[in-house]
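Quick one - inputs below.
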Amino acid sequence: MSATSGAPMIEVRDLTKNYGSFTALQGLTFQVPKGQVVGFLGPNGAGKSTTMKILTGYAGQTSGSAAVAGIDVQADPVAARQNIGYLTESNPLYEEMMVKEYLDFIAEIRKIPTDRKSVRIKEVVERCGLGNMIGKDIGHLSKGYRQRVGLAQAILHDPDLLILDEPTSGLDPNQIVEIRNLIREIGEEKTVIMSTHILSEVQNTASRVLIINEGKLVADDSPENLTHEEGGTLYVVVAPKNGTPLEHNMVERMLTGLPEVSQVNAHEITDEGALGFKVRYSGEDPRRSVFESVVKENMVLLEMRRHHVSLEDTFRKLTSND
Ligand SMILES: Nc1ncnc2c1ncn2[C@@H]1O[C@H](COP(=O)(O)OP(=O)(O)OP(=O)(O)O)[C@@H](O)[C@H]1O
Ligand SMILES: [Mg+2]
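Output:
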């Protein structure tokens, strides 16, 4: 079986996985079109790695189907894997091999033609910033460099799809930025699905976020929409213009009357004669409307701070089980 053009890069349909009496995945369905970079989120034990193992043919499902580039993974794992580069959660590497030796070995497994092998290894080594490491034993590399070796083996056969299970876990902030940039570069040409617990990472690299909880899909949207629809809170402080004291009720009515605003509460007052409000909104950002109505009512806007709902807030809301 060969890759079917026109098919989505990933098609997961009603996927269920039981480990004994425990259900790890319960009817998971999603598609990923070619070229998309998808963040795959969920709390510990949600089923991310299980999904990735099924997608790569390293675990079988209990029911449902998984296809990559139009190839059913269970029916033809070898053909499906030709389209996939996989960085597993534990990134097991041959500690006693040198980086160069290891990539040679992977090239053999991946059946990269001998005449192309050394050129391709060179390209990948450069791309993954492994130039100074090729003569070192993998066992002597730092975590970040081991992760680069893991990425190098994943992209060596130039697959169309990268499945990356927590590619930045355990890295220091500098290495996280470097690996993230590398993934972003790869994502310009390839389809990528990556699991992570670093939510800001998804906002920086992915155009779509899938969130799973207890083996079920609970969100599928762009990072912007996942935060935008939830709205947020504004902290607004207004002051009188000409010494005429402000009337609390009047200001509260004015704020409540704005179309974007869903709730107004009194907020701590910091300056003499000023009034503070906590303004809840959903959807559109109301800062312009607040500014305009404050000016129109002849008041001074002393302060306006926005607490936007973060992806972290949305994640917690969707995946906390209480
Ligand atoms: N081989 C196995 N045998 C029994 N249970 C398993 C096995 N593999 C995974 N599980 C269980 O399935 C559930 C999903 O595990 P999975 O590793 O897919 O979660 P995850 O979303 O990748 O979590 P994490 O964020 O911690 O990596 C967990 O409850 C886990 O304990
Ligand atoms: Mg996992």
